[in-house]
Design brief:
Layout: H1 5-14, E1 24-27, E2 31-34, H2 38-48, E3 59-62, H3 72-88, E4 93-94, H4 101-107, E5 116-119, E6 133-136, H5 139-148, E7 151-154, E8 157-164, H6 173-184, E9 192-197, H7 199-202, H8 206-215, E10 223-226, H9 230-236, H10 241-248, E11 262-267, E12 274-276, E13 284-286, E14 297-301, H11 302-305, H12 308-318, E15 328-332, H13 336-344, H14 347-353, E16 356-358, E17 379-382, E18 398-401, H15 404-413
Parallel strand pairs: 2-3, 2-5, 3-4, 5-6, 8-9, 8-11, 9-10, 14-15, 14-17, 15-16, 17-18
Antiparallel strand pairs: 1-7, 12-13
């Protein structure tokens, strides 16, 4: 009997011929990703009673959540992380301004097909867009990985989602994943591995694939993956991907006779732009059911939609125009390299001229701790991945989620707007 992607990669890393869903395996991850919570994890690591990390080369540390530091508490945490990095000889450290960890990780060559990556952030599955097994873990688990270089994992069941057809104009990967989450529910893939496949996936950019894998976490997935192809290798070339090819071969792929817990097929050809309504990500409706809702703020960016094509989609709508009076439009690229390229292409100039406020690469307002927090009663439409109460500040505020095109169109008119109408 064949194995799914998750079964095959975990069996290989555990030194076993095969595994089955529910089996517990111990593996040595290729990478451990941490961010602003590294100081707290390092404290837990020291409580274990060891003084040196098991493998400095395993670590990728990015300061991204509250950067630059918003207050003394965050500044002290950043200082402690820098000291820990120096003490432990960790070289893959990216200080403030470099970008969001889920973007920086692959940009710097730390994600590749067949790799096993664990991270102390729930959106670590983003790296599955590169054919990696990437899963979020808790801070205590991360401390244990620091100390031992290993972790036990339960082999997940697998959902295979096959996407057919071609996306219509101004409909993107964000609309696809919102539709899927709306259909499956916030627990529809609970502790499952999700394999994305089909002609719609093959036609998608790496950025679009990252959106799908990133937000698979919002339906409970342990990890999500897109099998590597020429699009994958072209993106990785020059970033460490070619160098790492020897570790994972052409990448680990599911067997043709693999057994899945569920097979879902969906044709994206007639998909309309989607919007997640407050206060859950699975409260999804077509944009025409929520058009006209007045907004105070719009956010384009984050680890979900802060890549160049996202900024370009917004600039296409806003170039030569100006956002509506009373609307705040925040733009934060996912990394320094994306910011530089967007500047070179005139994308940033177009957005700023349209009234946008440019934020430094990082997580910014997404988690409600820094930049762009909302006041009671305010409404934001955002390209981020979560819209829980209090996620962006006040628990009495309201957050809608949409694609960059939908957010840009809404900022232009001051109400939630179908981007196909602009």
């Amino acid at each position: 009997m064949g194995m799914t992607f998750a079964e095959k990669v975990l069996a290989r890393k555990a030194g076993l011929e095969s595994v089955v869903p529910g089996q517990i395996v111990t593996v040595r991850p290729d990478k451990l990703l941490t961010h602003d919570n590294t100081a707290d994890i390092a404290s837990k690591f020291r409580e274990i009673g060891v003084t040196r990390v098991a493998d400095p080369a395993m670590h990728v540390i990015v300061l991204d959540h509250v950067t630059p530091a918003a207050n003394e508490t965050y500044a002290a945490s950043h200082k402690a992380t820098r000291a820990f990095v120096a003490e432990q000889g960790i070289t893959a450290f990216y200080d403030i301004g470099e970008g969001i960890c889920h973007q920086v990780l692959p940009e710097k060559g730390h994600a590749w097909p067949g790799a096993v990556i664990v991270g102390s952030d729930s959106h670590t599955p983003t790296a599955g867009a590169f054919g990696a097994f990437a899963a979020g873990i808790g801070r205590t688990e991360a401390a244990a990985v620091m100390a031992t270089g290993a972790i036990w994992l339960r082999v997940p069941e697998t959902l295979r989602i096959v996407l057919h057809g071609a996306l219509p104009p101004r409909v993107s990967a964000k609309d696809v994943i919102l539709k899927l989450i709306g259909n499956l529910g916030a627990d529809g893939a609970d502790y499952c591995s999700v394999e994305f496949a089909g002609e719609a996936i093959r036609a998608m950019s790496v950025a679009g694939r990252m959106v799908l894998c990133n937000m698979a976490a919002e339906m409970g997935a342990k990890n999500a993956v897109v099998a590597p192809d020429e699009t994958t290798w072209a993106w990785l070339e020059g970033r460490g991907g070619e160098r790492e090819r020897g570790r994972g071969g052409e990448g680990v792929r599911a067997d043709a006779d693999a057994v899945y817990a569920r097979l879902i097929e969906y044709d994206v050809s007639t998909l309309a732009p989607q919007v997640a309504q407050p206060h859950t990500v699975d409260n999804v409706a077509p944009v025409d059911e929520v058009t006209g809702v007045k907004i105070d703020q719009a956010l384009i960016g984050t680890c979900t939609n802060g890549r160049l094509e996202d900024l370009e989609a917004a600039a296409e709508i806003l170039r030569g125009k100006h956002i509506a009076p009373g609307v705040r439009l925040l733009v934060l690229p996912a990394s320094r390299s994306i910011l530089l390229e967007a500047i070179a292409r005139g994308v940033i100039a177009a957005l700023v001229a349209a009234g946008a406020t440019l934020l430094n690469p990082g997580c910014g307002p997404c988690l409600g701790a820094h930049e762009g927090c909302m006041a009671p009663g305010e409404v934001t439409i955002s390209t981020a991945n979560r819209n829980f109460k209090g996620r962006m500040g006040s628990k009495a505020a309201f957050t809608y989620l949409g694609s960059p095109a939908t957010v840009a169109a809404s900022a232009l008119r001051g109400v939630i707007t179908d981007p196909r109408e602009v």
